[in-house]
Amino acid sequence: MTNQLLVKAPFKADHVGSFLRPERLKKARAQFEEKEITLELLTQIENEEIIKLVEEQKEAGLLSITDGEFRRKWWHFDFLGGLDGVEFYEPDKGLSFKGVQTKAHGIKVTGKIGFSTHYMIEHFKFLKEVAGDAVVKFTIPSPNMLYYRAAFEEGVYNNDEEIFADLITAYQGFIQALYDEGCRYLQIDDTSWATSFSEEGIASLKEKGLSLEQALSFSARAINESISKRPADMLVTMHICRGNFRSTYITSGSYELVSETIFGGLDVDGLFLEFDDDRSGGFEPLRHVNRKDLYIVLGLITSKHGELEEEDLVKARIEEASKYVPIEQLCLSPQCGFSSTEEGNLLTEDEQWAKIRHVVKIAQDVWK
Asked: Could you tell me which residue ranges the Cobalamin-independent methionine synthase MetE C-terminal/archaeal domain spans (predicted)?
C-alpha cells in the first residue's frame, strides 16, 4: 500500500514508543492505588508529564511523537482490557522473563469480543492536542496478543475462527475511530511472532494444538484483516519484539523461520525489528522483503542498558543490511521501548535521551 505519509514516516530516526516513567508519575500512580489521591489528580499529573515528554521528544530531534505510554501499566493488557467482552483479572503468577517474573496480572475473555468505545481514544485526542503540528504516533498491541495472552471462559467461543472473526471486527472499529480523531500513524506491537523463532516456542504452539504453519496463517490474517479497511492516508507499522521487561527478554532466535510471512505476507507499511544483539540473528532473512514500499526500521540501538553503541559499528551494520534491502527503505530506532511496563528498563532518563539523540545523529549522518 502506498500513501504520501511514507515520504515522511517511518522516519529515518524513529522510536518504538514507550519512555521511562518519571518519578513524579510513579509516585502519583502508587498514591492512586493506595487511594491517597483522586483519579482527577492522577490524570492531571499524567497530562503534565506527557506535555513535558512531548517537548523532550521534539528537543531530542524526533519527528514522531508518542505519549510514552505514560497512562499504561502494561503495553498490551491496558488496551486489550478496554475491548468489549474482555476483563482484567489476577492470575496465579506473572509472565516469566529470563531471571525475573512480572506482577500477576492478565486479561480474560468473558463475553463476545467487540468495539463500542474505548478509553484510549481520549488518550490519543489529548496527545494530538498537545503535540501541535508534529506527527503523532499511537501504539496499540496486535490482535494476536489477545489470542495468545488472554484466558477464555468456557462457552464464550466454540473455535478459533469465531474468536478471530470478532477480534478482527473489533480492531477495525477501533482503528476507524482513531482515524476519525485524526490519527495517521499507527503502530501495532506484537511479541507473538517470536514464539515461532525457536524450537522451544514451536513446541509451545503444538501444546495449543497449532502447527507453525497454522500459527503463522492465523497471525498474518489477524494483522492483515484488522488493517484492511484503514483509509489510504493512514500509515500502519508493526513492531516485532522478543520481550522487554526490566531489561530482560523472553525468547531468542532469528527471523528466518517466519521471514517469508513477515516480509512477504503482511500488508503493513513498515516493520520495527530487533537487531540489537546476537539473540536476533543476522540480516539474511531480509532477503524476503519483496516490496519497494515496505520500510524496515532497524532496531540497532538497545533500550536495555545505557551504554551507547559505537557509532561506526552501527553505520557498518546499516550498510550490511542494505545488501538485502535498499538503503532508501531502511530506517533506524532503538530495538524496543524503554518502558514496556510501568517498571521500566534498567537505565536512567539521561541515558534514555542519550540513546534517542544517538539514533537521530547516526540517521542524519547516514541519510543526508
From this structure: 15-363
For the segment 58-101, what is each residue's pLDDT rounded down to a tens digit? 999 999 999 999 999 988 899 999 999 999 888 666 666 566 66
**Strands of the 138-141 sheet, one edge to the other:** 138-141, 185-190, 235-240, 270-274, 295-301, 330-334
Q: Angle at Cα 272 formed by Cα 317 and Cα 366, nearest 5°?
A: 40
**How many CA within 13 A on the CB side of residue 365?**
13
In a domain, 29, yes or no: no
Per-residue pLDDT band for 193 (boundaries 50, 70, 90) equals: confident
Distances (CA, A) of 217 to 130, 237, 256, 309, 313: 40, 19, 16, 37, 36
pLDDT exceeds 80 at position 272? yes
Residues 227, 305: Cα–Cα separation, whole Å: 34
Alpha-carbon distance 324 to 259, whole Å? 13
Helix (H, G, I), strand (E, B) or coil at 101: strand
Give the model's pLDDT for residue 277: 77
| pTM confidence score | 0.92
CATH at 79: 3.20.20.210
- Decide: 317 and 308 in contact? Cβ < 8 Å: no
Q: Residue 314 belongs to what domain range?
A: 4-22+61-366
